[in-house]
Amino acid sequence: MRQNVEKGKTLLIDGPACITLSSGAMRVFGAQIKVGEHVIVRVGKRIPFEVMEDSQIEMLLGNSASCLLIDEDPIPQSWKEAVSTMLSSNKGTETIIVLGGVDSGKTSFCNYLANTALSLGRNVYLIDGDLGQSDVGPPGTVGLSIIKTPIVDPFNLKPDHVIFIGITSPYTAGKSIIEGLVDLKAKAIGMGSNFVIINTDGWVEGASAVEYKLHLIKMVKPDFIVAIQGNSELKPIIDSLSSLEAEVLIADVPKNIKKRDRETRKIIRESSYKKYLKDGKIHSYPLSWIAVDGNLELKGRNDQFLKKRLEEIVGNKIIYCENMRNQIILVLKSGSTLSDEENAKLNAEFKKPIRILREGDEKGLLVSLEDNKGRFLGIGTIYSVDYDRSVLKVYTNVNGPVSRVHVGRIRLDEKGNEVEVIVKSQ
After folding, report:
1. What residue numbers bound the domain in which 351 lies?
2. Which of 32, 84, 169, 390 is the most buried (most CB within 10 A)?
3. 0.85 surpassed by pTM
4. How far apart are CA 27 and CA 31, in angstroms?
């Protein structure tokens, strides 16, 4: 569909859609759109196209997509003022943390800030700390990307560093996220950045959320904190920042922000899993060659003596057992269970915790594959564990040597759809 749009208008496109500029001039979050350029708007996303001069576009709208023409500037005045303040700073190297609730415009603000800073010659690095709606790296990770060209959708960025956390919610992973963000900030500055933007998740309400965000800020030590709020949802956090040296800038939630339900957010995550698993195949890794840790810890040392002792208590239900320093791993045959009496006998017999798994429990768990220096190589999903041969089989597009497989708590099906997120260890 071809459409003419007048200068001064803003075209709000909800995906899935493809927009091509045939003539004229448009921009998105400060990024100029070139004539002939195709801009993909993903499912669940809204992109505002600001019309700088009379233009003609080609629109291809998918199912559930929509188009709305408005007269408003898509960039709130408070955003422009906050960006101007940060870019007029003479500190040499600036680190900015962006706070806000779910669907408050954090990512859009980061795009606008990055594009504006880039146009003024800053060495801009973007760090994504939102596990559930990550754009830089797959879900369940925190990622860093060097911004070399203006951003329309950060989903298209290539991650330069990724740290795997293995879960989509910050509730139980705060310490790991903060350590990851501190590490990525250090990497950015070490690589020559003088403008580091850190996007965060939307968990801001409640005592635990406030405590988490305050600890994050104290550890990262930003120069500026941008608080995007519609009412006063960030007030408990802002009121607790008075003792810090960082300057707090208040910004408004845009009027035309898109609100997404839980299912839409899940669909967005699934498109990201599929992106990072594309062209994968099943790889086999002998457990004696790699370290396996996280939500599943195995060394491939099936202890036959221990197995006999355990079978005296629970019978012929065991296919594998391993005596580790801090726990015993006990793998039961698929479908097997232990009675309360058997559990009590096991706890009485052994002086260390016993983690009970069932054959097949591992299938579909999302993993990070790393090299011998701990660098992230990519993600995969566990296909199976061959306990007889002590071999881990992983579906992944990572080729070459792997030294560590870190197992997360996200389970996917064979099509890359999210089945469950395990809150606690099994």
Report:
1. 304-358
2. 390
3. yes
4. 5
